């Protein structure tokens, strides 16, 4: 059964068709990788699914519910969270405060404090408790990636969209990073845009190949290296 | 009708003169200069003082020379601040400092070159007198606009400036963006003060004017779409049309017209009337 | 650190309180306009060494064009007073404050001068809003003779806001409007159409309303073609000039001042407005030095040429001293300041003489000031029981930067009688 | 804990000022405490990265609540004034917040400036109702049958200032404040974390306006007058500068100290030939000192 699906999505920027009629389905609990050359529309697809901007045409469904018109923050509350290619953190805040902001984001204008226990549990889950007083700007690239995902995880999403989770991470750390991350995210459907085919082969369960804004193939991870990307 | 056109033209010129420099600085360097009006006024004070003392040509040259020394000073001053809030704080302080210095240097009188400009005479258009000085000021403002146009669209530096103004991070990849920003601060301040000098041909400068000028410049900047020079020109035209119409048909609203224009434009197009694209996030 | 800071504030407060000046206390009694209140005082009637005179006027912003000449006049007069026997043997010391910052700041400054600096008299305020804010506070504190020297709002008298210690030694916008209307009808008996061009705030609206009502009462067939109100410090009047050129009225009335007056004169001259329409300037005196075209109707309300210095020595001395010290003839705010400071001086001196004491208490000063009439450089000021001055106004025709065909409107011609509301009086002209 | 101690210490100092201070000092203390509420409002919005050059609009709404109620209905009851000021300023803040939450940066500053200047113009234009640029008289308020004297006003000011210090303490620990930091630093991320930012900004704007409105009401009380100057953008400019000044100082009393420092400098400057020069130098010196200590 599909947790997230998109039908015939279109998006152009100033005449350039970034996403050109994409239909995609994310099954419950699966790890779906989106691969393709630079400029093939992968990040735009993530942005459309997360609601960063509306599609020119097409629809997005979350568990059969049409969320096409819902803006990003509403989709988060419905269960679609995301990370960013360049980790989007709050650089001058500490790791602890970063996570507290993520909790605060799910509340209204509340004068009550964010419960310490909840922040702590997230930090411990992602092995960031020891770094809680470090400013986000001072973290290593890998730690930034983890924190970015941890922030997204706070909303307990049904689907998590990971935009290049291993980019700018040192080659030798990529595998261990993904292993750590995916272990925490067990049970959540994951859509990841990924350049590193080794990572895709090892961690994805299904692969979608994009080129020039279109989905050109769906493949098994084991076959991914044989495809012309 | 001729009279309405003259009214439109004069106010349009007025708005352009106060806002172009700010649009340029804000557009490229993202410096929000609360002392902007003070530089405009300084140009007017200096031009009047020097030209009445030295005569038109030497006075104008002396004014230009003094004005050319301003931008580096302002530039050094702005460099001392580290973020936008500090910039706001520091340029507000600068506005006060300059107002204080104006009083010490220029006293409390009215400074204007209007009499000199009136000496040029007036053309008769459709039976109405239109002073030649208005045309001359128009030529000066148009010349400056043309200079900015050539600079922005016909030179490599201009290409960088436009790139920086569109997207700083993107431009940072290929352009030495700080240098471009510094240059634009130089040019913007110089142009502001120069236009202040030009405006002395139709208006008087006194204490307290710096803050009044600032609001008009702000309004044109925001309506025009933040730092887009053509947008600022269009905004000036729009406000000038609205103001002239209001005075002709319902003068009670004049005080409000510029604020209503700001609110209306920002409600309909939050980015201003002349944004090329909506910035995501 | 935080606690230390607040504690420091407390210590400072304690110390300041030790320096609190001695002031006499007034308690109000009567409320009827014409009744003189009774006062009690705790200060000894001993001779003073120093007479502290608080002066508050614009020294910054566009209105400094009024404030600085007024302050100049204050300094000039205080020097003269100190050379000529001081005030009851006390040396006059000026305590000067800027009027900038709005009415709430002016209330703070009033309290500072009276409650902290301990001035013996307060003279100040150009802005009507400032006067209206300070008057009730001054009456409430009631310790200090308070004289408004310039602000022209008629509300101070019409609403009976000056009863105890507050006075104004000037006229109102009614004085301006009626004087100008009378003069207009004298020199332009056939005036048919008029347009108003005034600044969009209370002063501009009052000036226009009082002129219009006076003119229409005295000549009901005059048509008002338009009423234009411009934002303060607008710098560009081309739209208004265009409209006036199109409307072709016989007369334009304006009370523009400061940069607005100059900008209007320059821009209207360039467009040829004055060749087509005559303009009556309610506060046009400053324009005389800024290229005022010939043949316009200009009200001072004071003018250094009146009373004729050749014949009237007080004005001659004032004008000569002012010119020799500041390089230009005194404009009307200088005269307004002179009216106020001389009023304070005479009130104290006469009160001491009448009561036969070395130093009069405040109630005596107030009682005298309500009945005082005195000569000043520009006028003869008659104070009234409603604490306002009956004073005249000077109107003339501009010629070569000077005022000619001067006419002095006597106080009774241009001010409502005591107890009559301004608007009622204007309608009865 | 330190925060609460500061509040207690502040009350102590205020008591000393009242007991030992002269009339002028007591007046200035009450004036500053009232005005500091408006600074609090401006500072709250700064936390979201929003510079509001129209906060004076709410400040005026509060002042005119008292002025208009007294002028047209003869009501001098302080509770009614406060209630009206809170409701009116809250509505004003909500409205301007909803309208201006769509924009940021200069546009936000200017849109609010324009809104407050429209209010300014209305106060000027409808002079038969509002007294025009002359403003309105505001009497000493009454609390049921008793007239609030100087002591009553002083206590009201002290109550406001300490209540807002407390509110500031509560706020600074709250989820809303966390989110404010997030919005200021990285709005995209906060939005991608599920926050309805515009709604947060509208709520903050309403709270800031209520605060500024009560400040305006209080200043109108202590100066017995309210004028359109309250809504003029130069008033907002002063409030923003005082709020920036307060940002240099620690919680929870930073806003009162910032307000006090600004007003002290401003009032002191009025005795000089060029007050602006004095204020300008003082502001620069503050910035310099702060930079020196925060190197």
Sequence-ordered SSE layout with sheet pairings:
The complex is a heterotetramer of chains A (229), B (281), C (429) and D (295).
Chain B: H1 2-29, H2 36-54, H3 56-79, H4 84-106, H5 114-118, E1 122-125, E2 128-131, H6 132-154, H7 156-166, H8 168-174, H9 177-199, H10 209-224, H11 229-249, H12 254-268
Antiparallel strand pairs in B: 1-2
Helix pairs in contact in B: 1-6, 1-9, 1-10, 1-11, 2-3, 2-4, 2-9, 2-10, 3-9, 6-7, 6-9, 7-8, 7-9, 10-11, 10-12, 11-12
Chain C: H1 2-18, E1 50-57, H2 64-83, E2 91-98, H3 103-116, E3 121-124, H4 128-141, E4 145-148, H5 155-158, E5 166-168, H6 173-187, E6 193-199, H7 202-218, E7 223-230, H8 238-247, E8 251-254, H9 258-271, H10 273-276, E9 278-281, E10 297-299, H11 313-326, H12 332-355, H13 362-369, E11 373-375, E12 380-383, E13 389-390, E14 393-399, E15 402-409, H14 411-414, H15 422-427
Helix pairs in contact in C: 2-12, 3-4, 6-7, 12-13
Chain D: H1 2-20, H2 23-47, H3 55-73, H4 78-100, H5 105-125, H6 127-130, E1 136-137, E2 142-143, E3 146-147, H7 150-173, H8 175-185, H9 187-192, H10 197-223, E4 225-226, H11 233-247, H12 254-269, H13 275-293
Antiparallel strand pairs in D: 1-4, 2-3
Helix pairs in contact in D: 1-7, 2-7, 2-10, 2-11, 2-12, 3-4, 3-5, 3-10, 4-10, 7-10, 11-12, 12-13
Key features of this structure:
heterotetramer, B: 281 residues, mainly alpha, ABC transporter involved in vitamin B12 uptake, BtuC, two-stranded antiparallel ribbon, 12 helices, 77% helix, globular, disordered C terminus, D: 295 residues, 4 strands
Describe it for me?
The complex is a heterotetramer of chains A (229), B (281), C (429) and D (295). Chain A has 229 residues and is an alpha/beta fold. Chain A is built from seven helices and ten strands. In chain A, the strands form two sheets. In chain A, strands 6-7-8-3-9-10 form a six-stranded mixed β-sheet, with helices on both faces. Chain A is globular. The mean pLDDT of chain A is 93. Chain B is mainly α and 281 residues long. Chain B has a single domain, classed as ABC transporter involved in vitamin B12 uptake, BtuC, CATH 1.10.3470. Chain B has helices spanning 2-29, 36-54, 56-79, 84-106, 114-118, 132-154, 156-166, 168-174, 177-199, 209-224, 229-249, 254-268, and strands at 122-125, 128-131. Chain B has a two-stranded antiparallel ribbon. In chain B, β1 (122-125) and β2 form a beta hairpin. Chain B is globular. Residues 277-281 of chain B have low confidence and may be disordered. Chain C folds into two domains: 46-171 and 314-390, 3-Layer(aba) Sandwich (Rossmann fold), CATH 3.40.50; 174-300 and 393-427, 3-Layer(aba) Sandwich (Rossmann fold). In chain C, α2 packs parallel to α12 (332-355), α3 packs parallel to α4 (128-141) and α12 packs across α13. The longest helix of chain C is centred in the last third of the chain and has 24 residues, at 332-355. The radius of gyration of chain C is 22 Å and the shape is globular. By secondary structure, chain D is mainly alpha-helical. Chain D has one domain (3-235). Chain D is built from 13 helices and four strands. In chain D, strands 1-4 form a two-stranded antiparallel sheet. A two-stranded antiparallel ribbon of chain D has the order 2-3. In chain D, α11 crosses α12. Chain D starts with a helix and ends with a helix. Chains in contact: A-B, A-D, B-C, B-D, C-D. At the C-D interface, α1, β2, α3, α4 and α7 of C face α1, α2 and α12 of D.
């Amino acid at each position: 059964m599909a947790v997230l699906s998109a039908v015939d999505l279109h998006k152009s920027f100033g005449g350039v068709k970034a996403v050109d009629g994409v239909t995609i389905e994310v099954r419950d609990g699966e790890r779906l990788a989106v691969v393709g050359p630079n400029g093939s529309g992968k990040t735009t697809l993530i942005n459309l699914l997360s609601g960063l901007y509306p599609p020119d045409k097409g629809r997005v469904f979350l568990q059969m519910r049409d969320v096409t018109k819902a803006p990003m923050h509403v989709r988060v509350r419905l269960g679609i969270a995301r990370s960013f290619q360049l980790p989007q953190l709050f650089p001058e805040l500490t790791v602890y405060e970063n996570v507290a902001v993520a909790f605060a984001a799910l509340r209204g204008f509340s004068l009550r404090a964010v419960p310490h226990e909840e922040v702590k549990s997230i930090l411990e889950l992602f092995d960031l408790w020891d770094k809680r007083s470090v400013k986000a700007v001072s973290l290593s690239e890998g730690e930034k990636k983890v924190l970015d995902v941890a922030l997204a995880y706070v909303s307990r999403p049904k689907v998590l969209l990971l935009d290049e989770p291993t980019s700018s991470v040192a080659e030798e750390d990529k595998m261990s990073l993904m292993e750590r991350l995916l272990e925490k995210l067990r049970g959540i459907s994951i859509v990841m845009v990924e350049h590193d085919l080794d990572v895709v082969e090892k961690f994805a369960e299904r692969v979608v190949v994009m080129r020039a804004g279109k989905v050109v193939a769906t493949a098994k991870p084991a076959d991914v290296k044989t495809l012309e990307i | 009708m001729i009279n309405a056109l003259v009214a439109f033209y004069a106010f349009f010129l007025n708005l352009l003169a106060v806002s172009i420099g700010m649009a340029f600085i804000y557009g490229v360097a993202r410096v929000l200069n609360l002392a902007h009006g003070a530089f405009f006024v300084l140009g007017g004070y200096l031009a009047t003082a020097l030209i009445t003392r030295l005569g038109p040509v030497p006075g104008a040259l002396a004014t230009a020379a003094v004005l050319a020394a301003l931008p580096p000073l302002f530039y050094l001053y702005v460099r001392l601040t580290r973020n936008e809030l500090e910039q706001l704080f520091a340029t507000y302080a600068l506005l006060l400092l300059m107002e204080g210095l104006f009083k010490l240097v220029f006293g409390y009188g009215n400074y204007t070159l209007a009499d000199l400009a009136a000496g040029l005479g007036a053309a008769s258009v459709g039976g109405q007198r239109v002073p030649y000085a208005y045309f001359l000021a128009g030529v000066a403002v148009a010349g400056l606009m043309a200079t900015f146009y050539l600079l922005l669209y016909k030179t490599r530096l201009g290409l960088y400036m436009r790139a920086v103004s569109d997207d700083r991070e993107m431009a940072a990849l290929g352009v030495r963006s700080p240098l471009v920003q510094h240059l634009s601060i130089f040019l913007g301040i110089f142009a502001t003060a120069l236009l202040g000098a030009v405006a002395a041909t139709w208006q008087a400068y006194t204490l307290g004017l710096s803050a009044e000028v600032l609001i008009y410049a702000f309004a044109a900047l925001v309506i025009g779409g933040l730092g887009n020079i053509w947008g600022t020109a269009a905004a000036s035209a729009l406000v000038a049309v609205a103001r002239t119409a209001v005075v002709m048909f319902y003068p009670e609203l004049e005080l409000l017209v510029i604020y209503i224009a700001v609110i209306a434009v920002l409600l309909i197009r939050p980015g201003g009337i002349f944004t090329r694209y909506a910035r995501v996030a | 650190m935080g606690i230390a800071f607040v504690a420091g504030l407390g210590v400072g407060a304690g110390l300041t309180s030790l320096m609190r000046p001695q002031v006499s206390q007034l308690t109000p009694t009567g409320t009827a306009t014409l009744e003189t209140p009774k006062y009690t005082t705790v200060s000894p009637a001993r001779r003073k060494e120093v007479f502290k005179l608080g002066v508050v006027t614009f020294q910054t912003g566009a209105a400094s064009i009024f404030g600085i000449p007024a302050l100049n006049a204050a300094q000039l007069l205080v020097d003269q007073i100190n050379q000529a026997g001081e005030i009851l043997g006390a040396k006059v010391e000026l305590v000067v404050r800027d009027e900038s910052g709005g009415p709430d700041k002016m209330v703070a400054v009033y309290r500072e001068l009276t409650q902290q600096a301990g001035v013996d008299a307060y003279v100040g305020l150009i802005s009507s809003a400032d006067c209206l804010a300070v008057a009730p506070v001054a009456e409430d504190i009631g310790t200090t003779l308070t004289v408004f020297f310039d602000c022209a709002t008629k509300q101070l008298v019409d609403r009976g806001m000056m009863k105890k210690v507050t006075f104004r030694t000037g006229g109102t916008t009614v004085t301006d409007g009626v004087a100008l209307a009378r003069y207009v009808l004298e020199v332009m008996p056939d005036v048919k159409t008029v347009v108003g061009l005034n600044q969009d705030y209370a002063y501009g609206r009052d000036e226009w309303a009082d002129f219009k009502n006076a003119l229409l009462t005295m000549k009901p067939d005059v048509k008002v073609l338009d009423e234009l109100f411009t934002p303060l410090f607008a710098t560009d009047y081309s739209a208004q000039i265009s409209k006036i050129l199109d409307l072709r009225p016989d007369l334009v009335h304006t009370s523009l001042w400061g940069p607005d007056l100059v900008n209007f004169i320059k821009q209207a001259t360039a467009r040829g407005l004055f060749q087509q329409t005559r303009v009556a300037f309610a506060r046009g005196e400053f324009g005389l030095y800024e290229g005022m075209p010939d043949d316009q109707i200009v009200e001072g309300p004071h003018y250094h040429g009146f009373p004729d210095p050749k014949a009237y020595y007080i004005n001659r001395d004032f004008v000569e001293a002012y010119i020799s010290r500041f390089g230009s003839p005194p404009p009307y705010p200088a005269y307004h300041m002179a009216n106020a400071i001389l009023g304070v001086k005479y009130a104290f001196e006469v009160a001491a003489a009448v009561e036969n004491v070395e130093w009069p208490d405040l109630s005596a000063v107030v009682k005298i000031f309500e009945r005082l009439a005195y000569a000043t450089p520009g006028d003869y000021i008659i104070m009234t029981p409603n604490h306002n001055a009956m004073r005249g106004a000077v109107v003339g025709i501009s010629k070569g930067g000077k005022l000619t065909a001067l006419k002095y409107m006597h106080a009774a011609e241009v001010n409502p009688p005591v107890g009559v509301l301004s608007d009622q009086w204007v309608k009865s002209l | 804990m330190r925060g609460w101690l500061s509040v207690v210490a502040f009350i102590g100092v205020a008591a000393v000022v009242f007991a030992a201070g002269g009339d002028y000092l007591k007046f200035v203390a009450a004036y500053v405490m009232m005005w500091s509420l408006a600074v609090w409002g401006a500072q709250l919005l700064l936390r979201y990265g929003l510079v509001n050059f129209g906060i004076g609009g709410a400040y005026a709404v509060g002042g005119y609540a008292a002025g208009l109620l007294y002028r047209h209905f003869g009501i001098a009851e302080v509770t009614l004034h406060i209630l009206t000021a809170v409701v009116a300023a809250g509505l004003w803040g909500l409205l301007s917040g909803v309208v201006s939450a769509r924009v940021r940066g200069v546009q936000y500053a200017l849109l609010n400036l324009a809104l407050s200047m429209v209010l300014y113009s209305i106060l000027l234009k409808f002079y038969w109702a509002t007294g025009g640029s002359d403003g309105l008289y505001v009497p000493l308020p009454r609390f049921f049958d008793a007239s609030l004297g100087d002591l009553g006003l002083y206590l009201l000011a002290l109550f406001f200032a300490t209540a807002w210090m407390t509110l500031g303490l509560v706020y600074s620990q709250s989820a809303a404040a966390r989110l404010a930091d997030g919005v200021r630093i990285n709005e995209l991320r906060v939005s991608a974390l599920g926050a309805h930012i515009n709604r947060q900004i509208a709520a903050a704007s309403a709270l800031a306006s209520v605060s500024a409105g009560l400040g305006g009401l209080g200043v109108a009380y202590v100066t017995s007058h309210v004028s359109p100057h309250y809504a003029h953008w130069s008033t907002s400019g002063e409030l923003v500068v005082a709020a920036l000044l307060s940002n240099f100082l620690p919680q929870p009393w930073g806003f009162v100290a910032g307000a006090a420092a600004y007003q002290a400098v401003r009032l002191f400057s009025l005795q000089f030939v060029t007050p602006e020069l004095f204020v300008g130098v003082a502001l620069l010196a503050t910035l310099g000192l702060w930079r020196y200590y925060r190197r």
